[in-house]
Amino acid sequence: MGASLRDATRTPSRRVGTQRLNAKVHKGVSLRTSALPLAFLCVLLLLLPLPASAAQTQPERTPLTLELLQERLRTPILREGNLTVDLQKMAIDLRPENASFRDAFYQLLRKELGTKPLGLDLSYALILGDFVGSDLGLRTLLYAKAIAPIFTATEQEKLERLRFVCLESLAIALPNSKDCRSLLGTESTPASEIAVFRGVLTLVQTRFNGEVKFSNTFFLQSVDAQGATFLQPTNWTETRFARPVSFISANFQQPSNFQGSIFFEKANFKKIKFRELADFQGSIFETTANFNQAIFKQLAKFSSVQWQGNADFSEVDFANQAQFTKADFNQFLLLTEATFEQGVSFREAEFNQLVNLQGANILNQADFSDARFAKEACLSVPGLTFNSNKAKILGNPGEIGQMFCIPTLQGNQNILRNLGQNFRQQQQVADANELEYTKQRLRLIEFGHRLTATNINSATVANLMNLGFSATQAEAIAQRRLVKSFRNSSELLTIADIDLEKYTQLSDRLIVGETLSIVGWLLQAWSWLALSVLLLLSGYGTNFWLVFGVGGLAIAYFGLLFWLVDRYRRLHPVPIIPTSYETISILVSFSVLEFFSLLAIFRNAEQPWLTLGCLLIIIVPVPMALLIRLYQQGRYHDLMNVSYFTEDGTFRQLRLLIGRLPVIPRNQTFRERYMPLLCDRRWNWLNYYDFSLNNLVKLGFNDIRLRDEHLPGIISALAWYQWSLGLIYITLVLWTLSRTIPGLNLLIYLK
């Protein structure tokens, strides 16, 4: 029993121990099981590549001491043919608490860099405290006779080059910089001193924690600051860069001041970031300036800047306002795909070449008021993103609309519509009409292209060869369209036998589309002809003075013809001819009217000779044929000594005669009411102009018509011909007035 009791008491204890052991084993297994995923995750993280931003670490920098600096000054390295003081990957402490080192640093570098044309390489360095770069250069007077003899002939030539730039700037404004005022003076002054940096300055990936000051410094060699970071304000005012300068991908965290600087060679600011104010006011770029893909987070000031070379602002993002006021662009201004989130001002700017706004995005306001455009300059806006309901383009009324240039209508109809609406909202009707004229002119070019171009989907092999393709190329085109028709002409480049040169040579003479039938071709030709006449004679209803000139020329011409057929009837047997006074009067008045009409045409028509030719084709052949026939067959009728023209003597005043016909009705009442013109009156010749005015404009001082009896049919046909032209002309006049008077324009466009 005792044994049983012991066994009974021992058994529970064993169970408890076994349970504890099992619990420990289970706990260990569970810990190992939960640790496996963690271990796997750690291995995975080690194997996977880190992002570039995480993998990139700051370079290890060596603290610069005076001993190390003296050593580097004694042993400059040769880099790209230039002796350079190598201070790469240094940590340079120039803070006020390290004043003794700072003063020695500037003193040692100034001594070496001033006496020798040594470069300075601070790439990947960390600059703590303010960096006064102008203290590293050699101070010298810029007056020609006072330039230090230590400079080489090449260096002195570069310094003298500044004088010519200052003289050139006099043509625009009086230079404000100290060095320009000194160079243009007669004596040197202490204020004319400038710091000259004789060697190459390299600041690749350099980080400046304090302010950077290079004001009034002349760099005789290149400056390379690619990827540099400036955490505090930078001062480059009145700095001169004699060689190329590069700030590619540099980052300016605080305001940067380049006022009055001169860039003699290429200035590269590609992908630069200005997070605060960027001020380039009054600077001069002698050659190309590249700001491609730059970012301006705050105000960008480029007022009064002289751009002697191309100014490239392609793909630039202006998050705030941009000011180009009074800037002078001597070459191309490239704003391709640039974005203007706020207003941009080009007020009083001068453009001598094309301004490329292709694909640009204007979200607020672009102001071109008082800007001056040379003959070759224009605003190229294909693909411009512009919403007239949210943004505005401003310019001088009657001028800015002429400055837009668009190569084709295809793909640009929206921008033309938005620009037109923009100017209508500002009541600049002339500019809106100019854009409408541009649109219709491009439409005319498309019509002509469809009529004359070769359709590559239907042209025979022989036609393709006559166009300029070789036999192999023509056969390849024919085989390709059997498989699938061409959707656009650029698909020709998918054919192996056709290269880009051949395509560029012939693309303007090719078209892709359905083949036109004879009727379709004739309708297309009629549309082309009608649009051509409207553009030539009225600017598509946008130019009233052009219409006025066309009408004045026609009125004077027909007035002379009517005087001739009425007053110069025969020489034999009894002469019926006008007096000398009447002949001189009509010819002088005709010359005066024609002169002012031609003046209006040549001042307002884009192609005045074509306009004049088109008008002459309309008004000369038929009347001249009738006139020649009239004098060939002669006149044999009663009342030979009585004028063919009659007037209503019961009412004399300026009035509209819309329903008036050129010949009086066959009724005795009208014959009694309308009396023949009195040819012996001194001012009778004015009545022929009045009759011509009645026929063409339906407006006159007297109601003058042809008599209904003893009237040669040729004379009647001549009057009816002008009267028919008058119906078309008065319609053209009213249509043009409706497009050029703001009040009437609202009735048309506010549908």
Structural write-up:
The chain has 751 residues and is an alpha/beta fold. It folds into three domains: 74-428; 452-524, DNA polymerase, domain 1 (Orthogonal Bundle); 532-740, no CATH class. The protein is 42% helix and 17% strand. Mean pLDDT is 83; it is low at 1-56, 170-174 and 745-751.
Distance N to C terminus: 117 Å
Percent in strands:
15-25%
**How many domain modules?**
3
* Biggest sheet, spatial arrangement of strands: 2-3-5-10-14-18-22-26-30-34-38-42-45
Number of strand elements: 52
Rg, Cα atoms, Å: 43 Å
Globally, the shape reads: elongated
Average pLDDT reading: 83
* Helical run tally: 20
Question: What does the main sheet amount to?
Answer: 13 strands, mixed
Low-confidence stretches: 1-56, 170-174, 745-751
| Helical content band | 40-55%
By helix and strand content, what is the structural category? alpha/beta
Report a brief summary of the structure.
With 751 residues, this protein is α/β, with parallel strands linked by helices. It folds into three domains: 74-428; 452-524, Orthogonal Bundle (DNA polymerase, domain 1); 532-740, no CATH class.
Secondary-structure topology with pairs:
Layout: H1 2-47, H2 52-55, E1 62-63, H3 66-74, E2 77-79, E3 82-86, E4 90-93, H4 99-115, E5 119-121, E6 126-128, E7 131-132, E8 138-141, H5 153-169, H6 178-183, E9 193-197, E10 201-202, E11 207-208, E12 212-213, E13 217-219, E14 223-224, E15 229-230, E16 234-235, E17 240-241, E18 245-246, E19 251-252, E20 256-257, E21 262-263, E22 267-268, E23 273-274, E24 278-279, E25 284-285, E26 289-290, E27 295-296, E28 300-301, E29 306-307, E30 311-312, E31 317-318, E32 322-323, E33 328-329, E34 333-334, E35 339-340, E36 344-345, E37 350-351, E38 355-356, E39 361-362, E40 365-367, E41 372-373, E42 379-380, E43 385-386, E44 392-394, E45 404-405, H7 413-425, H8 429-452, E46 454-455, H9 461-467, H10 471-483, H11 500-506, E47 510-511, H12 518-538, H13 544-567, H14 580-604, H15 608-619, H16 621-633, E48 645-648, E49 655-656, H17 668-673, E50 674-676, H18 686-697, E51 699-700, E52 704-706, H19 713-740, H20 742-749
Helix pairs in contact: 3-4, 7-8, 8-12, 9-10, 13-14, 13-18, 13-19, 14-15, 16-19, 18-19, 19-20
